Prior knowledge:
Blueprint: E1 9-14, H1 20-30, H2 37-45, E2 49-57, E3 63-74, E4 77-85, H3 94-108, E5 113-118, H4 123-132, E6 135-144, E7 152-160
Parallel strand pairs: 4-5
Antiparallel strand pairs: 1-2, 2-3, 3-4, 5-7, 6-7
Helix pairs in contact: 1-2
Amino acid sequence: xxxxxxxxxxxxxxxxxxxxxxxxxxxxxxxxxxxxxxxxxxxxxxxxxxxxxxxxxxxxxxxxxxxxxxxxxxxxxxxxxxxxxxxxxxxxxxxxxxxxxxxxxxxxxxxxxxxxxxxxxxxxxxxxxxxxxxxxxxxxxxxxxxxxxxxxxxxxxxxxxx
Length: 162
């Protein structure tokens, strides 16, 4: 008799308006000023916005959205709007999987330059972006609101894709 060993599978797929509640929940798990489900529904329905979700499927066929990346393109430039991973799933390389896939989509669409903003205190995100080849090209003062604290700056980062 062969013992049954349950396994899970991780995969990236396009997400859309039906996933808005899950996107808002994940975003709220990682940001002090979370976006609303209605914000996500509008964003992912826009023609110039790409939305990729990372799902974990159990051995029993149930799948759960554990992270996402949203990006917006305009001609040959793009911006990463947001990336988030459920707190319980962080530190497993999921952000890298999402960013790799998003950058592949942008490259395929002939985007030449990708920008993003990141909190300078977010060491894991900074390390990921630098590993991917992003470099700092500026800063935005008082970009990230922090309840009860002074707003934090954001580093503006750029990656040349072409």
